[in-house]
C-alpha cells in the first residue's frame, strides 16, 4: 500500500472511531419531557404562558374526542392549537375520538389517526411525529400502524423513566402522571429518575381540568412542579426532541 493510501486509511479510521465515541455519549441527567393530553382549554390559557416564562418545551396531544366540538369553554379551538405550534410547542396526535386502540378495527384506528394529521395540515401545523395512546392502552396493531405512518414516539402509561437504549420508542413509558392527589414529593421522585441515560416523561391533562376532575392538576401545584424543574436545572423538552437522544443511543 502506498504511503498516501495508508494516510487516508488512518484518517478514515480515526474519523470513524471519533464519530462512534460521540454517538454513544450518555444522555444528560435531568432531561425531562412534558406532555399534556386531551386538548384542554387551560393548555392555551394557563399552561403555555407558564412554560414560555420558564423556557420549557412541551408536547400537546390533540384529540377531538369528549366534547371538543361543542364545548369551547373547556376545550381549545384549532386556532389556539395553531398558536401553540407557532410558539414552538409540539402538537402530537391523540386520535380523533379518543377511543381505546385495542378496541378499534385497524381501519377505524387508521382513520382516527389520519384525521388529526389532516386537521393539522389544514391549520398549517406540521404532521405529528409523536402519538399518545388514549387511556394508555397499546396494541401491536397500533404500534405497526404508527411505525408505517412515520411516527417516532408514542407515549403509553407506567411509572418509570424512558430508557432509549432498551425501551421501544413507540411504547415509551411515563415517569409521572399528574392526578388530583399527586404530590410534589412524587413529582420530585419522578424527576430524580432522569439520570444514567434515562429520561423522565411527565403526563398532565388539564391545569385545571374541569370536565375530567379525576385527572385534574391544581394550577398552584403545577406551578410548584415547574419551579422544581427550574431550580433543579432540568432541561425540559418536547417529545419530538427525543429523536436526537434516541438516535445517539441507537448508533
Summarize the structure.
This protein is 40% helix and 14% strand. With 251 residues, it is α/β, with parallel strands linked by helices.
Account of the protein in words:
This protein is of the alpha/beta class. The protein has a single domain (26-250), classed as Glycoside hydrolase/deacetylase (TIM Barrel, Alpha-Beta Barrel). Helix content is 40%, strand content 14%. The chain has eight helices and nine strands. The protein has helices at 3-23, 42-54, 78-86, 106-122, 140-148, 184-192, 219-231, 242-250, and strands at 31-37, 59-62, 90-93, 130-132, 153-155, 162-163, 176-177, 198-204, 235-237. The strands form two sheets. Strands 1, 2, 3, 6, 7, 8 and 9 form a seven-stranded mixed β-sheet that branches.
Percent of residues in β-strands: 5-15%
Main sheet summary:
7 strands, mixed
The rough form would be described as globular
Distance between the termini: 31 Å
Total count of strands: 9
The CATH architecture category equals Alpha-Beta Barrel
- Strand/helix succession: HEHEHEHEHEEEHEHEH
| Overall pLDDT score | 90
Estimated helix fraction: 25-40%
Domain module tally: 1
Which blocks of ≥5 consecutive residues have pLDDT under 50?
3-25
- Using the coordinates shown, work out and report the CATH topology: TIM Barrel
Q: Report the CATH C-level class.
A: Alpha Beta
Q: Supply the CATH superfamily name.
A: Glycoside hydrolase/deacetylase
Class based on secondary structure composition and strand pairing: alpha/beta
Number of continuous helical runs: 8
What value does the Rg take, in angstroms? 20 Å
